[in-house]
Amino acid sequence: MEDVDKNIELKINEISKKLKAIRLSKGYTSYETFAFENELNRVQYWRIESGKNITLKTLIKVLDIHKISLKDFFEDL
């Protein structure tokens, strides 16, 4: 089970890093500014980019903000 958990954590970190890269590519150098301008809780968004708390609901909301489909997001992960 430990290997499974470790693999899950690695995948969550990949998702977090990709979300941060997308934010930066859109010109948002601050996660706080991105969260504020898109009506997201800034602490919750920080947790997402830190790989600490990602719910599907929030992931879909963030991808909708960026106009990215789930398919496109996960295509290269």
UniProtKB/TrEMBL annotation:
Note the superkingdom of the native organism. Bacteria
Q: What is the name of the protein in this document? A: XRE family transcriptional regulator
Q: Which residues form the HTH cro/C1-type domain?
A: 19-73
Matching InterPro entries, A to Z? Answer: Cro/C1-type_HTH, Lambda_DNA-bd_dom_sf
